[in-house]
Amino acid sequence: GMPPLVPPRKDTVKMQPINGTVRFEDVEFAYTPEKPVLHGISFLAEPGTVTALVGSSGSGKSTMISLLCAFHTPTKGRVLVDEVDLATVDLHTFRSQLGVVLQDSFLFDGTIRENILFSRPDASEEQFLFACRTARVDEFAERFPEAYDTIVGERGVKLSGGQRQRLSIARALLAEPRILILDEATSSLDSESEAMIQAGLNQLMQGRTTFVIAHRLSTIRRADQILVVEQGLIVEHGNH
Fold first, then answer.
1. SS3 content of the chain, % helix, strand, coil (to 5)
2. How many helices and strands, by DSSP H and E, does the chain display?
3. Segment 175-197, tens digit of pLDDT
4. What are the beta bridge partners of residue 182?
């Protein structure tokens, strides 16, 4: 199962509004001491750039992402955001500036509106509707009799993979994160909603530091830097 999360830390610093420079400095990580997963990972990602992570499953890509989200702390080396070591940071003040759109988007029992506002409960109606339009949530939500007040999740309307993904894009848009993490594991999307979602993502990526766990050639081609990860090492680093 999932390894235990980092226990709450004492004497942490609040993360200021971040600009989004991410630096891994010789990062090693092991879930259990005898089985290291990452062996000395170093790279720099600047604001306004897209970094594609490419590699087979089990190569260490997801572990890199969980260190970036500060779900774990490196066994050795440092993960720095704007030159601040994440191991010293109050996690809530950091994670609230992070946008994550994962393959299996997290939905809870509640309305479409609640699921999207989750990332920013104080957003105005105008901001909420803008996020829904940009992510094309409006196209399916407004067809329901209850519109945005439709209950989704286990006890509500079952959304398709594409609809869930649009919902998580709207949620990330609303949060206006400085760092964005996308996992595009071969989505269960037809090419039409694929193109629409891509448009929503392109909008979301503008000016932010974006990391994509990339499977599609089109994403890899458009990335500013490509990190090819194998067995916990970056074996190639460059652009397409």
1. 30, 30, 40
2. 8, 12
3. 889 999 988 764 555 566 667 77
4. 101, 212
